Structure formats: structure tokens, C-alpha cells
Amino acid sequence: MNRVYIILLSIVSVFTAFNTTQAQNGGTSTYTFLEIPVSARLAGLGGKNISVFDDNNSLGWYNPSLIQSNFNRGININYLNYIAGINAGLVSYTHHEKGIGNFMGSIQYINYGKFIEANEFGNITGDFSANEFAIIAGYTRNIADSTIKIGINIKTIYSQLEQYNSIGIATDLSFLYQSKDKLLCASVLFRNIGTQLKTYKSTKESLPFDIVAGVSAKLAHAPLRFSVTFHSLNSYNLAADEYTVNDVTGLKEIKQKSGFNKFGDEFLRHLILAGEFIPTKSIYISVGYNFKRRKELMVEDKKSITGFTLGAGLRLKRFSIDYALSKYHLAGTSNHFTLSFRL
Where are the domains of the chain? Predict the structure, then answer.
């Protein structure tokens, strides 16, 4: 249990050290496709879970500490039918080398589809496409004893948007603790530490750097597991200004919040909750709730289930199938599919 306290203390220390830095919100960094939860298992747990450690190896590309030896010579094929006709996917292969550690090679891609090309006068001149992909090499091994693991991903990134292209490199570094009874798992992940090697034009952009910390606990005598994940710990300020319309002037004004409400709003935007029902080793059903996604993308008059995710999986001896549904917006739902099998 001392190691649990050390990990939790480290999480708090990381949050304290980085909470004054600038956020990596949408529109402020490049290669943001790296943050899309392609895996059905990841999507069903809210989109950023790093602490579920079981027989499913489809989370290793996101958190390298979750690459497992018991999935040696395993292949994961992931497909995402994303919003607005965007398609994404990931294929990975896992290999265990006795005495050295676990390796995973992955290729992640996204295809934004075809776009109409026009000149400054509005005359259509043709069409163009936009694609991005990353080649990821992952590695993990035990340190100290079998309860603590360290993992690393190295990524080569290529992006082509119409006639512009860019090349980048990034790495992920993670630490994971799993209790000997396998009921408790905690992890810290530093994602997308890197830079652009070739810019689109002349401006160098930052990568979507993220610090994620999470804990998952499975009940000893019930088929339930609960997860708490904190993301974007490198920036405390995630909330954009909210506006109201002045009844007298008709002008927009920044909505003022009390200190407690502002703190609560900022805190919850970092939080993702997830729960799983696991009646047998072969079946699971998951539900997730992403506070930031719901706060930013819900329609006030029709909140629907924006921010919620649902997932389910079936595991057999040599292969498994996972599916997840993510509600991004009232008009945007994504479907995630994963097929895993051993050679």
C-alpha cells in the first residue's frame, strides 16, 4: 500500500506543478488526431482511461504501460466511424521477449475525406484530400517487482492537408502500479512530448501535450470496476469565458462566476468517470462520462446524452470483439469497433 500512496502523492505533485501552464485546447496545437480514442475499449471508458489493466491489449497504443505479455503475437484492428464522415483507424501488433519486455508496433491514421477546392472568386477548381498518420513503437517492462511497470511510445507523425504537409516526432512516457491481487491499478501518463521536424509553412506549432493520471478499482466480491481519470493536468484553466446578453444594451457580457463555482467548473473539466459491469471474464459492459466534452459540446435546450459513452465486449479464447458509442454532440455520434486476435 505504500506504493499506492507514493503514486497518489506523485499525481498531486504533478497537478500542482503544472496547473499554471497554458492549456492545449482545441485549435492551439497540431496533430490533434493523436488524441482521438480510436480503440473501442478506450472510447467506452470516456476517451482517456489509462488504468484498466486486464486481458484486453487494445489500450497499449495509448498508454504503453498497458502493453501485456499475455497477448504475445496479438493483433488489434480498430476502426472509428467518426463525425462528419471522417474515418480513423489503428492496427497494432504485440510481441513479448522473455527477459527483455513487451513490444507493440502500431499505425494510426485518419482520413478527413474529400473537399471542394475553389479560388478566391468562388470558382470550383477541383477537390483535395486531407490525411494524417503516425507510426508508433511501444515498449514496457517491469521495474522493482511485478507490480510496477514503465512504458514508452515513440511516434513518427506525418500530416498532409491539401498541398501542405508536416512531419513531427513525439514520445509518451508512463508509469503503472497494479496491486498483487489485481484489484487496484493506478497510472500516470505524459503524452505527446515532441516537436515538428517540418512545418506546414513557416510557423512551428506545438503538439497536444497532455498529462493524465488515473485509478481503477475492481470490487473483490462484485462484478464491478470503477475508474477515475484526470486529464490535462498540465493546465488548470480549461474553461472558456461564458457570455450573457445585457437586457438593456443588447451587448454580450462575460458571465461572472463566484470563486467556488469557477473552481468547481475548472476541476470537473479535468475529470472523467467510468464504470464497468463484468459478469464473466468473457463479457463486459462499460459506461463513461466526460465532463469537459459535455460542458463544451452540449446544446443548452437539448442536452441529450452528450458526454456519455457506452461500450461492450465479448472475449473468446483466441479473439475478442469490442464496440463503443460516443456521444459528442446532439448531431454527432461516433461508432468504434475493435477486433483482437492472436496469431
Answer: 2-116+126-320+332-342
Residue 130 burial by Cβ neighbours in a 10 Å radius (0-12, 13-18, 19+): middle
- From start to end of the chain, where are the E strands? 74-81, 87-97, 101-118, 124-143, 148-161, 164-178, 184-198, 210-218, 224-230, 243-245, 252-254, 271-280, 283-290, 308-315, 319-329, 332-342
Residue 343 confidence (pLDDT) above 90: no
**pTM summary value:** 0.85
pLDDT in tens, 62-116: 999 999 888 888 999 999 998 888 999 999 999 999 889 999 999 999 999 988 8
Q: Which CATH architecture has domain 2-116+126-320+332-342?
A: Beta Barrel (2.40)
Alpha-carbon torsion angle 8, 14, 16, 22, nearest 10: -140
Give me the residue label for grid cell 506546414: 200
Q: Cα-Cα-Cα-Cα dihedral of 301, 306, 307, 312, to 10°? A: 150
